[in-house]
Design brief:
single chain, alpha/beta, Gyrase A, domain 2, Rossmann fold, 5 domains, four-stranded antiparallel beta sheet, four-stranded parallel beta sheet, 23 helices
Length: about 600
């Protein structure tokens, strides 16, 4: 089913061209949904009237006279100084619902007609350290972006750009060589928390013991030269870290696999090529011993050209060099049409400069789009970045475990009759879902305050409320089974719908707009558009269910109401489970 907005936008635009008599000078209008003034409202008439120096209401009348939407809408109405209000026909909505009913997989959401090959760079956890709350947003927002784009029909390539190379590994490996290589890493019996302690010890020695610092630097050289023992230890560190990271992804229902890892070590052999090519093209030059590129338009606080350093005076490469190598690889080898980076706002300037240099070097052009998708911070109740009492970052596993523990208490109170395993599964779905949904329901670019009480609430725009709404709809099927009513048989036999009650019509109208929510969310990478749509859907279903009996409805009304229930459940499940990666228990 083609998006209604797209159809109306095109037809209104065509009508504006005809009404203006100006051909290509007519503005393209995107109708905006506004329930107060009808289902859709065409804005832009005033702007076009100003351009044509004519009365906007008279222009609106001309546009309406040239507008044919009779297959979709009632007769368009002109309101105010020149707004055009459009209300969908009941028969159009009914036919759209029947179309959604037939498409069990995609809910009649049309795929994009411009499929792209899109690389999405997200998560990027630290090696030799536990994931903390600071990794949450990149990981789940990036995953949601992948899910939305894939659903729309794009080919999506996730990339997990991990920091697995550099001086810190020489420092860590050297410390292990001198202390506990046999007992710990020789047999890979250590944990990531052990490595964090090793790292703290190694860093302290590196900062205070020049002999150890020199040995660590020598160890980096040996690592770069692929000396077997050093390389083996380094590999153990990376593998052990990944072994602890991937269970977190599984817990969060994030689609990242070991095959998606492209660490800094992967790009390391390509860094010299990057610097040499920048030099050959006359873009890179020496400045105070370092090799730098000075992209146009970037200044420091003194108004001087701001450099992007690609090689330090000691020959070491930097993050910028690795990111440039990654762009070359993603364009040349992965054949990306678009590359999306999901990181916090603080990296904004870095990526602006990297994107500019990549374009200057000819590694990207107007056909390859580079996008930096930013997000705000997770804050504690005090309005400051979420930390432990000791001032450390909250470990992600501890945060998720706490969410599941709290959810289990709620489940035990509400459903003590369920088995232990059922309550475990529901608590896991509710706890993890609550953390993810709370993040998604906030504006991506804003900071938000983390509150278990709010995110686990059974009321309001929360995961538990949405999961309960889904379970509530599914309970109708269980009730029907007890009364020996064959819902599937009734649904299969539906050929026409009977939408007469206002709450039926309101729910039906919202159901056919699911595709609009998906495309709007994907256009600006804002999951809160999905959560907002789902929350409104749950509210409309509640109003419908309160006003309209379903199982006890008259035979001429029951099939329509059963279909509304079925499509509501399928839409909530699709939005939560497929798009947001949040489980939907059948019982709550």
């Amino acid at each position: 089913m083609k998006l209604i907005l797209d159809i109306l936008e095109q037809r209104i635009s065509d009508a504006m061209v005809k009404a203006s008599g100006q051909g290509g000078c007519a503005a393209i209008v995107k109708p905006a949904v506004d329930a107060k003034f009808g289902d859709y409202q065409a804005n832009g008439v005033m702007a076009l009237a100003k351009q044509l120096k004519t009365n906007p209401r008279q222009l609106a009348e001309k546009i309406v006279s040239n507008l044919d939407v009779s297959d979709i809408c009632e007769q368009p109405q002109i309101a105010g100084p020149g707004f055009i209000n459009l209300r969908l026909k009941p028969e159009f909505i009914a036919n759209a619902l029947l179309e959604i009913k037939k498409d069990t997989e995609n809910l009649a959401v049309e795929k994009t007609n411009k499929a792209e090959r899109i690389v999405v760079d997200f998560s990027g956890p630290n090696i030799a350290k536990q994931m903390h709350v600071g990794h949450l947003r990149s990981t789940i927002i990036g995953d949601c972006i992948c899910r939305m784009l894939k659903f729309m029909g794009h080919e999506v390539i996730p990339q997990n750009h991990i920091g697995d190379w550099g001086t810190q590994f020489g420092m860590l490996v050297q410390h292990l060589l001198e202390t506990r290589i046999g007992a710990a890493f020789g047999e890979t019996q250590a944990s990531v928390s052990d490595m964090e302690e090793f790292y703290r010890e190694a860093k302290k020695r590196y900062d205070t013991d020049e002999k150890f610092a020199a040995a660590s630097r020598d160890c980096v050289v040996k690592l770069h030269n692929h000396e077997p023992q050093i390389l083996s230890l380094w590999r153990n560190i990376v593998n052990l870290s990944l072994q602890e990271i991937y269970p977190k992804y599984e817990l969060l229902n994030v689609n990242l696999s070991p095959e998606d890892v492209r660490g800094e070590s992967f790009y390391n052999p390509k860094l010299s090529e990057v610097v040499n090519e920048l030099k050959q093209k006359g873009l890179a030059k020496e400045s105070q011993g370092a090799v730098c590129v000075f992209p146009e338009g970037f200044k420091n606080k003194d108004g001087e050209p701001l450099p992007l350093i690609v090689q330090k005076s000691d020959g070491a490469f930097l993050y910028a060099t690795t990111d440039l190598a990654a762009i070359r690889y993603r364009v040349n080898e992965l054949k990306a049409d678009r590359i999306i980076y999901v990181t916090d706002l603080r990296q904004g300037l870095h990526f602006e400069m990297v994107f500019k240099v990549a374009k200057m070097a000819g590694w990207t052009d107007d056909k390859v789009k580079l996008q930096h998708i930013t997000f705000g911070s997770v804050l504690g109740e005090d309005g400051k970045p979420l930390k432990t009492r000791s001032g450390e970052n909250v470990k992600l596993k501890e945060l998720l475990d706490e969410a599941v523990t709290r959810a289990r208490k709620v489940v035990d109170e509400k459903n003590p009759e369920l088995s232990e395993s059922q309550r475990d599964n529901i608590a896991n779905a509710v706890g993890i879902g609550a953390v993810k949904y709370a993040d998604y329901s906030n504006n991506r670019t804003s900071d938000y305050i983390f509150s278990f009480d709010k995110m686990l609430a059974m009321e309001g725009n929360t995961a538990p409320y949405m999961q309960y709404a889904y379970a509530r709809v599914r309970s109708i099927e269980r009730k029907a089974a007890k009364s020996e009513l064959d819902i599937q048989a009734e649904l299969a036999g539906i050929e026409t719908l009977n939408l007469t009650e206002p709450t039926e019509f309101d729910l039906a109208r919202h159901l056919i707009r699911y595709g609009e929510a998906i495309y709007s969310a994907a256009a600006d990478f804002r999951p809160n558009f999905i959560t907002g749509y789902l929350y409104e859907l749950a509210q409309k279903f509640s109003a419908f269910y309160t006003e309209c009996p379903v199982l006890k409805a008259d035979k001429d009304k029951r099939p329509t109401r059963l279909l509304l229930c079925d499509l509501t459940a399928r839409t909530i499940q699709h939005g939560l489970q497929y798009v947001l990666g949040i489980e939907t228990p059948e019982q709550m």
